[in-house]
Amino acid sequence: MAAAPPRRQTAPMPPIRLDLALPPGYPAEAVLAFFARRAIPGVEHITATSYRRSFAFNGTPGWLEADLARGVLDVQHADPAAASEVAARSRHLFDLDAPRAGIRRCFARDARLGPLLREHGDIRVPGCWDGFELGVRAVLGQQITVAAARTIASRIVARHAPRIAGAAEEEPCHSLFPEAAAFTTADLDGLGLTGARIATLRALADAVAGGAVDFDPAQGGAQFVARCTAVRGIGPWTAHYMAMRALRDSDAFPAGDIVLRKVLRPGTTLSVKELEAASQPWRPYRAYAVLLLWRAA
Known about the structure:
Elements: E1 16-19, H1 28-38, E2 44-46, E3 50-57, E4 60-67, E5 72-76, H2 82-93, H3 100-108, H4 113-120, H5 131-140, H6 146-160, H7 180-183, H8 195-210, H9 221-229, H10 236-246, H11 258-263, H12 272-278, H13 286-296
Antiparallel strand pairs: 1-5, 2-3, 3-4, 4-5
Helix pairs in contact: 4-13, 5-8, 5-10, 9-10
């Protein structure tokens, strides 16, 4: 299927600059490194100090750029009302309101997490701009490396992402990530995906487009996981990963993650049941434990 026609883009507008109000000690370098490893060319562009991406607001595309060194957010969109929406979603994207005091109190008494937190400092769970986009990334990441999943995502964008009309030639974020409706019929053959993975992406797209799966945090993590795992090809790891980043569920925990099963007790690979049991003292901040352990791996 060919890429959808470019969405309407009015003449470029000067950016609106907002204060991100970064908390003291915010781990910008670690957060940007997380996004950089997963950045999709054409949609996202990350530097040592900033995160830039395309987005759509009320059907019209624009750009946001967060400079985490200076703590400012630039929003470029034809509708000034987009700025407040982007500002609110950026707080979730960069996890600016993490419950730091509660996390420190919870992890300080843990023999494994306490020393790691002191070594790495403040820990955040990077969020996402769009729940469906994150779901696609999570499915692509099943049983392959982050780099391989990023490569396939970039191929999907190159084939199916609507290019933004009027985007400057040098604009690195020149396209919009395809919406769920586009994935339901998209030609995904020849991109490095297995037939099973293509079927899962289409099943997820159908579920989101039809309303069976949504990313409203009000539903709670357990309900979200149940709805996601009812989709063909989505298991607990994928559902919990999505809950961590899309729903901002601080207690989401992908217990099947092989890195977590290996890193918690070096030299030992814990079973899923053993890891689940070991994680109980970290509640309700197990998602933060995941990011801390991944950083330590």
